[in-house]
Amino acid sequence: MRLRNKHARYDKVMLDITTKCNLDCEICYRVPGSGKDIPLDKLEQISKEFQGIIISICGGEPTLRSDLPEIINMFSQNNTVFLITNGILLADYRYALKLKQNGLRYVSFSLNGFSDDTYKKINGEALLDKKLAALNNLMRLNYRIILSVLLVPGVNEKEINGLIDYAFQHRKFIKELRIRSAAPLGRFAASRKYSVEEILDILCRHKAITKRDLERSLKFKKTINSISPFNIFPIRSCFFDFYITSPENRTETPAFPFTGGLSGLLRPRAINFLYNAVKKVLFRIDTKPWAHNKNMLKIGVRSWPDETDINMYEIDRCNTGYYMDGKILPFCYANIIKEKKRLLKQEKDEKNL
């Protein structure tokens, strides 16, 4: 059994190791180059604070740091490490291999569609060939992948069907399709963003997903929470997770990752899932990020709050942390604070000119 970590409230901590980026996206919730990189010796100190959680290494673009392999090696000694990346440099097979040799197994990979026109609008340049080359390398090296889709109003809604089909066809490697809304933070100044409900409405246009199934999944989660002393399925306005079993025909989208009614509870995969869920709730022990049926694809929907719709009740129960100035804060709350600090500094600098 692993030791309880210093920041036991959080199952996952986001760690920006650089503010630099190799893209110039107008919709970025960060402002590239707006802060200093955390030195390697400081990262080594930070790594000792955690035991048995998920550390998400992000930025900026973390692959721009030449010492990324060492950083991954440090944090993977006692934790599960995720790399959050635009994936461009992973088109180099030798580089992707080197990261795996240093302990990386999981990658959250940005994929916003399958047309260069989409990437030009969202990321500022044609990227499709590089993205697909990088994904092929990750699958060849047997990585486990989250496909992270940034949904931008009026740009890539029509890409969703193709992304669902692609993720399901490659579900041996792609374990989750995460669809999130752009938020009015950083460089993305637009006030329009999607709520979770709006994203679910878009997903329901896909032939494999219906509102009835989503409502059944939500009802099941609420029922389990009501009869359990533990909040096994957190329910908040900023996210919703469910599963699909086929991209071709409408099927049920169960709350638990198994099918088969009551008999399904006795199947090894179901028992393993329940065991890991209880273990995580009771002891905060690291489990495999995905313990579910190989025939299913997890779909996660996210809509980050900003200062106009922040919910402090939900923020207080958020189990995703963000490392900032030596403290761990709830992720979305930290984003809002970070943006406020940046704007105040920008205003101050402009006054001093």
Task: Fill in the keyword field for this structure.
353 residues; alpha/beta; 10-stranded mixed sheet; 12 helices; 10 strands; globular; disordered N terminus
Explain the overall architecture.
The protein has 353 residues and is of the alpha/beta class. The protein has 12 helices and 10 strands. The protein has helices spanning 40-47, 68-75, 93-101, 116-122, 128-140, 160-169, 196-203, 211-227, 261-264, 268-283, 312-315, 331-352; strands at 12-16, 54-58, 80-85, 106-110, 144-151, 174-181, 239-244, 297-302, 320-324, 327-330. A 10-stranded mixed sheet has the order 7-8-6-5-4-3-2-1-9-10. It starts with 11 loop residues before the first strand and ends with a helix.
How would you summarize this macromolecular structure in one to three sentences?
It contains twelve helices and ten strands.
Show the helix and strand layout.
Elements (H helix, E strand, L loop, with lengths): L11 E5 L23 H8 L6 E5 L9 H8 L4 E6 L7 H9 L4 E5 L5 H7 L5 H13 L3 E8 L8 H10 L4 E8 L14 H8 L7 H17 L11 E6 L16 H4 L3 H16 L13 E6 L9 H4 L4 E5 L2 E4 H22 L1
Parallel strand pairs: 1-2, 1-9, 2-3, 3-4, 4-5, 5-6, 6-8
Antiparallel strand pairs: 7-8, 9-10
